[in-house]
Specification:
about 150 residues; alpha+beta; 434 Repressor (Amino-terminal Domain); two-stranded antiparallel sheet; 7 helices; about 45% helix
Length: about 150
Amino acid sequence: MTFGMKLKAVMKDGNLTQMDVVRLTDIGASSISQYLNGHNEPTARRKKQIAVALGLGENYFSEICPEENIVTDPSVSIPVGVAAKLMGKSKEWIMQGLQDGVFPFGYAVKMERWSYWISRVKFEEYTGIKVGGDGVNESVSASAGCARSDS
């Protein structure tokens, strides 16, 4: 699966538009368009930047997994941007709430920079907003045995 194909799948699963990705990643619209269309491949550093901004593991786009190893996992993290969009709030509002520990559906951890994790199940329970199925974010997680690409 190419980078563009993986990014399209993440966007579809998260109900994100190309402009949502631009806003969440601070990467220009033309670059995102080129990635999606397969005209350009981002650097490894840029792939990590995009993955982190979308609430995925930083090596998400560097993992090589056969499609049959991708499984639905209801406990996977919802990207902060998706949670914000679903709640009708800003990404910053969600991040601050997670940092302050006021949301029971996730947490924030600061090492060099903040990292966020939002439980899909707890998010649904707390907000009453259904995530998954034919909804906004049918999360997938790669199996632990996937090989990694150095690109």
